[in-house]
Predict the 3D structure of the following.
Amino acid sequence: MKIQATITKTLWIFLIACCMMSLPACAKNPKKKEMKTPTFKLDLKVEKYQMPNGLRVLLHADPKAPLINYQTWYRVGGKDDPKGQSGIAHLFEHLMFRETKKRKGKDFLQDIQSRGIYLNAYTSHDHTVYYFNLPKKELEYIAELEAERMVDLVLNETNLKLEQDIVKEERMMRYENSPQNIYIDLFETIFKTSNYRSPVIGYKKDINAISIKNCLDFYNTFYSPNNAVLVIAGPIHIEKTKKILEKYYGHLKPAKLPDRSYPEEVKQTKARAKDLHRPVQTASFTLAYPLPKASSKESYALELLSFILGGGESSRLYRSLVEKNAVAVSAHASSYFLETEGIFYISSDLHPQKSIKTAENLALKEIQKIISEPITQEELDLAKTNIVKAHVDSLKTAEGKASLLAYHETVFYDYAHSFQEVDRYNNVQLADLKKVAQVYLKPYQQNLIRLYPKK
């Protein structure tokens, strides 16, 4: 099994992506059919409590689910990497599957998988997440395993060297051997003082330099019950599950957590641009703007605005760049919200022989139009409909419900925050869209990455 690390976006980036993959028929032409703002009320029955050691627990019983989903979210990600140790949070995602005091080497993973358990993990800028889909009979086994990994991970030179090599290979595959991936360049262009500047996967020289002492310090600082949220959803018995968790987690000691303040990003005062020349088949560009953090009230209007601008084949960018002017094969816009910052970005892959400058000007023209000209009610209703549809679709599985609850409990310290998300989108008005467009899409806030085929 391959343990994947992903650049995690907020939950709503995932929802927008779902929307773009499955637009309803009326999305092809919003003027053909009158849209009505959808209504949907989410109210999952959740048992929430906090252990004396600080571990926050959410339990959701879903007897119809075929499997239990078990997620542990640690409030540590790439932004917590110490200086000169970029990538250590992501490295731990790998080390956590190596060995504990009771479970040795290769038997660790083989034993889990032999029980019919699916496991994986990912690291983002803000969090590290470990999750399992498991048969009901294996709940106690996983509870014991996860409690053990929280405090009794084995860290030695052999395991560290193995995982450093694996991470460097992963980095090579995702970046050095994927010339179209401009993620690192984009974050380095937008962020100058923020901890989000460094890539989650780390810089190669930093990965090589991470020592056992660095790992022990990091583990003892961040891997503790009072820095974690545990969510279990599926065919569980609430009281029996609580007894199991008390048995394995109850005796664990909390850690003294560090100060969680981070450097503020310097305010951007003029446009930035970066030209890249790489062995790609066709040119592309990405245009990005800094945004406020995930908890900002403006995030809902910005998400809807990005959908209207570039959320599928009915969007303004797609119609202009792909259909009308035929300079691009794709055009997309999205909003990406982190705990302390955000990004509004537009990306487009061009037709061969077409000019980046032409496509870029067309995109900028659409941005100017969305700032200065009225957005229609039909466009806003269509965006709301698609977001609500994706929201509902994501909750069809125990894993989807657990992810939603865990995200909101981790970021907002309140899982119930998720129950009002649809209302927050539905409450956005046309005036709100115009306001956020005027505030956040100013010319001097642009960050442009142009990617040219290397001659």
Notes: Confidence is low (pLDDT under 50) at residues 1-34. The two ends are 38 Å apart (CA to CA). Residues 157-176 form the longest helix (20 residues).
